[in-house]
Design brief:
2 copies of one chain form a homodimer.
Chain A: H1 16-24, E1 30-31, H2 44-57, H3 59-63, H4 72-86, E2 93-98, H5 102-112, E3 118-123, H6 127-134, E4 139-146, E5 149-150, H7 152-161, E6 165-170, H8 184-196, E7 200-204, E8 229-234, E9 246-251, H9 252-266, H10 271-283, H11 286-312, E10 318-319, E11 327-331, H12 338-347, E12 350-351, E13 353-354, E14 367-371, H13 377-395
Parallel strand pairs in A: 1-12, 3-4, 3-6, 6-7, 7-8
Antiparallel strand pairs in A: 2-9, 4-5, 8-9, 10-11, 11-14, 13-14
Chain lengths: ~400, ~400
């Protein structure tokens, strides 16, 4: 039959990164294009222990239906965790468990955006979230990201211009893909602007615990006095992504609607995954685990930046220094075509992600994204050497 | 702040059943209101064995990101399974794994329904699906369910009247809540009408394997020549609901959009859950497990109907005989208020679900739903005795 798709999904196209990742799945290719945590960062032994215990001691709780809000002991534990660790929960906030932070984006968009409403996004930003917003036929308006976060003048301009702006979407810590972190001053400015123009904020913080250098900065939710911020947390980077567990904090009145949306999507998050995270937070040394993780990634991040300094920067490509997260953003010298560079590099068996995949709106992009968490050190060294050699040749 | 919710979610209210289930969580209450599979029906030993093995042998596959379509070996296995078991997949169909069949309803509604579009539903029908359709601001139009399925004259009338009808939603086997099964003739009629009025069909089949009496009937998808049917399958009733695994079969062109929607919701379904189902299908005797399940439920269903015949039918309440599934639908004698009956019964510590919770549109309802899979035999006996005694007193 001739399908009559809804106006929401009519223009939807598959995620461009997925197509690139397909060529990266070739075994000879060195992939600097993924966003996967390092497999040796997974707490495999702990997960195995917990899994065996819960399936032995309380199998029916693992296998029976749960409630949409999440496993009650886990919610209680998480509230404490979020309060102590990030100060990201206020007295009139609720916290629910979600099936990965991606679901926070979906539910928030569904609850607050009509078709054609504007959501202001960092440019560049995480393509997964952008695509979710697009899937509700929202209009995405990009505001450039600088080394210390969104450009605030341009943010205000965008808010002033777009009367139907309803939300601002931000990843303040070690942003994907730019690697940048928003300064405290800008976080406060952003909140003030959201108040002034009466819009919501989605604060997406999947990488917040992965700080390798410098001091952590309070999250925007911690100074949310009027229930304007939806805070999204994830266990994908600090426990494991395959278990699909995240959480969301929002004002209880907003949350009521969002719980119904969550319920309509998947009834509840897999019980096994919730119980693994719960037990891990409660009975294992989460702090030590995160320190260990950061140790692994700090080394990899340092190695990656050293290699870039040695092999790539001399060719004219620049990159933004990072304090944490999993990604480094590289800028091509002016006058060179980024897409053709990335394509040619793939032929040399090194795969990066062309930056235009991360743009909220169509436009020029002269950058590409590198990931250093998935490749081995050997692959990083070889991959960036190849990149440097090729760039030298390409820019000549 | 003063929330401006999207028009989609503005009228959403929490699921009425959930409120009733709250009183059912009182330990003294005999709950005939749940929809949970019997805990002794879970293949606990197999799940424990599989879990231990996969976490030992391939922990990284269990914990790392997967693809949105699902775990590739599981998809291959499922395609075979669906083909052999139900004939519910054609050459130009695709199959993807979802996080419970609920997600099929969400994704299908999102992909095919604009706000205000009509989806025709059985009346009564599964409230979880109805609420999902409502969450996209679709208009629900109900068509009465008879002992052999939807009333076909009224279905055609509804299709004729509602020019913006886009889909028909049906649970042909052991429908929740009415317990009825659609005849083969009506399945064919329904498909013909869908062709005639050019609408899609969502065929929801979570209970199809739970047949205790009589012969199974071909699913509607099996005679879908023009990619009109979205088939939804679930492992909640035949493996376990807490793992959140279902699957969806649809024409490849429709599926492309639906995969993007799935991706935007939860990236992919929990890997552990997928691998448990995969290994269970592949390496265990699924057929014997289902037979065992049906043995447990056949006894419970027979007991429940016997008890109703003995204690409840003599009071004037009637019920519809079932061939499978988990639910029995009871009709009050004319002139009595069902809601007040259910409320009073709850005070006597027996909990059923008032039938109006299952109506697609506001209206009168004189029925209530009983579940027999969750209570123990002792609870069933006691609960239905109490119901009979109370009904005798109430109708006097």
């Amino acid at each position: 039959m001739d399908y009559k798709f809804s106006s929401k999904v009519l223009a939807l196209k598959p995620n461009a990164i997925r197509e690139i990742l397909k060529s990266a799945s070739d075994k000879d290719v060195i992939s600097l294009s993924a966003g996967n945590p390092a497999p040796d960062a997974f707490p495999i032994r702990a997960i195995r222990e917990i899994s065996e215990r819960i399936l032995k001691e309380t199998p029916v709780s693992v296998l029976q239906y749960g409630v949409s809000e999440g496993y009650a002991p886990f919610i209680a534990e998480l509230k404490q965790f979020v309060k102590e660790r990030y100060g990201a929960i206020n007295y009139d906030d609720e916290l629910i468990v979600v099936s990965g932070a991606q679901q926070v984006m979906d539910i928030s968009a569904k609850t607050f955006l009509n078709e054609g409403d504007v959501i202001i996004c960092e440019s560049p930003s995480f393509v997964g979230s952008l695509n979710t917003f697009r899937s509700y036929n929202a209009e995405l308006v990009g505001v450039p990201v600088e080394q210390d976060g969104m450009n605030m003048e341009m943010l205000e301009k965008a808010l002033k211009k777009n009367k139907n702006a309803k939300m601002i979407y931000t990843i303040p810590n070690f942003q994907n893909p730019s690697g940048t972190t928003m300064s405290l001053q800008k976080r406060k400015q952003l909140y003030d602007l959201a108040q002034k123009y009466d819009v919501m904020i989605i604060e997406d913080n999947p990488y917040g615990d992965l700080r390798y250098f410098g001091e952590s900065i309070p999250c925007i939710k911690s100074f949310d006095t009027d229930g304007r911020v939806i805070y999204s947390g994830s266990f994908s980077k600090v426990v494991a992504p395959g278990i699909r567990v995240g959480f969301m904090v929002a004002n209880e009145n907003a949350m009521k609607k969002m719980i119904i949306c969550k319920q309509g999507q998947d009834v509840h998050t897999t019980m096994w995954s919730q119980m693994i995270c719960y037990e891990f937070l409660k009975n294992y040394d989460f702090e030590a685990h995160v320190e260990n993780l950061c140790g692994i990634y700090r080394k990899k991040a340092s190695l990656c930046m050293e290699l870039l300094d040695r092999y790539v920067v001399p060719t004219g490509i620049t990159y933004r220094k990072i304090d944490g997260g999993l990604f480094i953003w590289c800028d091509m010298p002016k006058g060179h075509d980024m897409m053709s560079f990335c394509r040619e590099l793939t032929k040399r068996k090194v795969c990066v992600v062309p930056g235009n995949a991360f743009l909220p709106q169509d436009g020029e992009c002269n950058s590409f994204r590198i990931n250093f968490s998935t490749p081995t050190d050997e692959q990083l060294i070889k991959g960036i050497e190849i990149m440097g050699d090729f760039a030298k040749e390409y820019f000549r």
